[in-house]
Write a structure and sequence with these properties.
Elements: H1 4-18, H2 24-37, H3 62-81, H4 89-101, E1 104-105, H5 106-112, H6 117-129, E2 133-138, E3 141-149, H7 151-172, H8 177-195, H9 198-201, H10 206-212
Antiparallel strand pairs: 1-3, 2-3
Helix pairs in contact: 3-7, 4-6, 4-7, 5-6
C-alpha cells in the first residue's frame, strides 16, 4: 500500500518544480482539485470538422464556453438590474470596487476593473453625476484627485449585491457545490495570473505579450 505522506511530498515536489513561486495554499487547492476531478464523469465529446482541420479537444474550447457563459451572465443580470438604480454590470463593478477597495485614484479604479481609460473614465463620470461617487483632492499629491463612494452609493451597491446573488443562482444553479468550488478556484487562478500583468501589457503587441509570458 502506498504511503500517503510520501505521495503528498512527491506531489508537492512536482508542484514546486512546475510553479517555483507557488504557495502552499495554491498547492493545496490544486491537489484537492485533482482529487475531485478523479471522481468527475466526463461527458462524451465529438464534433464534425473538415478533414483538413484537426478536431478540437474539449480543453480547446475553454475560451468559447467562457465567453458564452459571460454572455449568459450579462443576459440574466440585465433582467435583474432593470428596475434597480444601476442597470448595467460595468457600473456595478466600478461601484463595488470603490465600496470594497476604498478611496483611490481614477487610474487605479480603472485598472482594477481591467478597462480602457476612455471607457473607464466615462463610467466614473457617470457614477459621479449620479451621486454614487465623489471626487476629492489626493491627500498625498495635491496635483491629483481620488474618488470614493458616497453614502447614497453605498446604499445602492448593497441593494445591487443582494439582487446579483439571484443572477448567480440562475446561471450556476445547475452546478453542485463541489463544481462551484472548482470553477471558482480555476477562474481565480486565471484572473490572478493575468491581472498582475494587465497594466504592463496594456500597450504591448500580442507577440510581445506572448514572449513575456514565455508562450511559444
Amino acid at each position: 500500500m502506498n504511503n500517503p505522506v510520501i505521495e503528498l511530498v512527491k506531489a508537492y515536489e512536482s508542484f514546486i518544480n512546475q510553479n517555483p513561486e507557488g504557495s502552499l495554499v495554491e498547492f493545496c487547492e490544486e491537489f484537492a482539485n485533482k482529487a475531485r476531478m478523479e471522481n468527475f464523469t466526463i461527458e462524451s465529446y465529438s464534433v464534425e470538422v473538415p478533414e483538413e482541420i484537426e478536431a478540437p479537444k474539449p480543453s480547446d474550447e475553454m475560451g468559447r464556453y467562457l465567453a458564452r457563459a459571460t454572455k449568459h451572465l450579462h443576459f440574466y443580470s440585465r433582467k435583474i438590474m432593470l428596475p434597480m438604480p444601476i442597470d448595467n454590470l460595468e457600473d456595478f463593478a466600478y461601484l463595488a470596487e470603490a465600496h470594497f477597495g476604498g478611496a483611490m485614484k481614477r487610474s487605479e479604479l480603472i485598472n482594477k476593473n481591467l478597462s480602457e481609460f476612455t471607457s473607464g473614465t466615462n463610467v466614473i463620470n457617470r457614477l459621479i453625476k449620479a451621486g454614487y461617487l465623489e471626487e476629492f483632492p489626493d491627500p498625498q499629491d495635491a496635483r491629483s484627485k481620488q474618488v470614493k463612494i458616497t453614502g447614497e452609493g453605498i446604499s445602492v451597491i448593497i441593494e445591487c449585491v443582494q439582487q446579483m446573488h439571484t443572477a448567480d443562482k440562475v446561471l450556476f444553479g445547475i452546478l453542485t457545490e463541489e463544481e462551484k468550488t472548482i470553477v471558482t478556484q480555476v477562474l481565480r487562478k486565471i484572473d490572478t495570473h493575468h491581472s498582475k500583468n494587465f497594466v504592463e501589457f496594456r500597450n504591448l503587441k500580442l507577440e510581445e505579450i506572448m514572449a513575456a509570458l514565455k508562450i511559444g
